[in-house]
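Hi there,

I know you've been waiting on this one. I reran it after we fixed the sequence typo, so this is the corrected version. Both the input and the resulting structure follow.
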Amino acid sequence: MASTSLQAATGNGNGNAAILSKVNKSFGLGDTRVHVLKDVDLEVKCGELLLLVGPSGCGKTTLLSVLAGILDIDDGEIDVFGIRVDNLRQAKKTDFRRDYIGFIFQQFNLVPTLTAAENVAIPLLIAKRPYQESLKQARRYLELVGLGDRSEFLPTQLSGGQQQRVAIARALVAEPRLIICDEPTASLDGETGKHIMEMFRSIALSENRALVVVTHDNRIFSYGDRIAEMLDGRILSVHTN
């Protein structure tokens, strides 16, 4: 059994960043119970960008949430860099997400009273990094996503696409080993989406990191190393791009 110690986690020794085995997740009780994930088996390899595709409602976002330890599973196993996420208590799951996961939410989830730089710095501040050092790192990542001149803007002063790029910078700023993205290019024009995906590709090219991207955007399919297709809560196929 893989270690549940966050301090001991160095990987699972087989070139995989994550392994999901017979994962099931449902919502509701009795007659209203809905099975969203059904015996999901999936491997995410180190050094790859894995695209997760399928129709709306097939379970893609739920799969991301259980992979990140945001949602508990009914049964099965989830191993991320040698950590059995399904065995962790809630407090340890919080530590796990802080130390290993960068999550790009579809709804951005920016704090409206904080500037772009302060929003991006949140993961570093949670990890108790010095404030000024955190802001400096945040501004560097805003530069990378093309928003260096918007670091002191509030979210309400930014367009939807700019807010999305702030959310992307926030997910990357702590340099997490597993980056999980829910429709990262949905609010972006074609050229900006291309820039973001090229940046993701450069980040993924590391033996100690991986990216999982849920998308309906066929403009970015070519950036994936592999594509996993979902339907009705199951993985139908995984193929090399």
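Quick highlight: The helical segments are 60-67, 90-100, 116-126, 131-144, 160-172, 190-204.

Best,
R. S.
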